[in-house]
Amino acid sequence: MDDDPAPRAVALLSGGLDSYTAAAIARAEGFSVYALTVRYGQVHACELAAARRVAAALRVKRHLELDVDLAGFGGSALVGDGAVELDQAPDRVGIPATYVPARNTVLLSLALAWAEALGAQDLYLGVNAVDYSGYPDCRPEYLNAFEQLAKLATKAGVEGARLRVHAPLIRDSKAAIIIRGMDLGCDYGLTHSCYAPVRHDQPCGRCDSCQLRARGFAEAGFVDPLLAMSG
Questions:
Q1: The total number of structural domains that make up the chain
Q2: Does any domain span residue 93?
Q3: 181 closest CA partner among 224, 215, 138
Q4: CB 35 within 8 A of CB 58
Q5: Could you tell me the CATH number of the domain that includes residue 211?
Q6: Is 87:206 a contact under the CB 8 Å cutoff?
């Protein structure tokens, strides 16, 4: 029987820098963290191994991996439908080819279901509305709407529980996220951010995610440990 007195939170954990930092914040805020990773058909599946490394480093209460094949729908370069755009400005206007239809809605719904089963009222995810590459499901108004959905669509919400979606990085730059994570002891050498990895899962350095990561480390004044390891 679990006798941990800490409140529970479910954190979506992709293996990337942002989700690692958000889960570390949940732990620092006193939650017992239950990490959820979803194999949704992403072509950059090496991020799943990174999620396991990060979950172990955070000493989460449980790390659950689920299979939900969004690749069956297509509609995104991240599930193999078209090519990942390279050498594009990551803060350009428009929604990129790496947008996965309704992905965050699917993932948050799974996290919400697990949270309700656990008796948890708090969800954490690493979405960001500053360096966010144009994804519509990374905006504050979307998260506010999902909280309202959670209130209306769950037994816990109908019975009066306040179900909260925490996006602690929502208004931070990538540099600010990195600095915050470093202060929490995050080892970013465990993470994987690249959407189009090359041989041996090495980051391409050319996709939106790689560019945002590189810019963040440069602005924060740190060397990316992945570059240090590959060098």
A1: 1
A2: yes
A3: 224
A4: yes
A5: 3.40.50.620
A6: yes
Q: How is residue 171 written in tokens?
A: 């208004």
Domain range for residue 212? 8-230
33: enclosing H helix or E strand: strand 32-39
d(CA 176, CA 122): 23
Which of 44, 49, 51, 42 minimizes the C-alpha distance to 73?
42
Give 84-105 pLDDT, tens digit per residue.
Answer: 999 998 878 888 999 999 999 9
Residue 154 DSSP code: S
Greatest pairwise CA separation for the chain in angstroms: 55
Measured distance CA(209)–CA(220) in Å, rounded = 16
Q: Based on the number of CB atoms within 10 Å of its own CB, is 225 exposed (0-12), middle (13-18) or buried (19 or more)?
A: middle
pTM of the full structure: 0.95
Residue 186 lies in a domain: yes
Q: Do residues 37 and 13 make contact, with C-beta atoms less than 8 angstroms apart?
A: yes
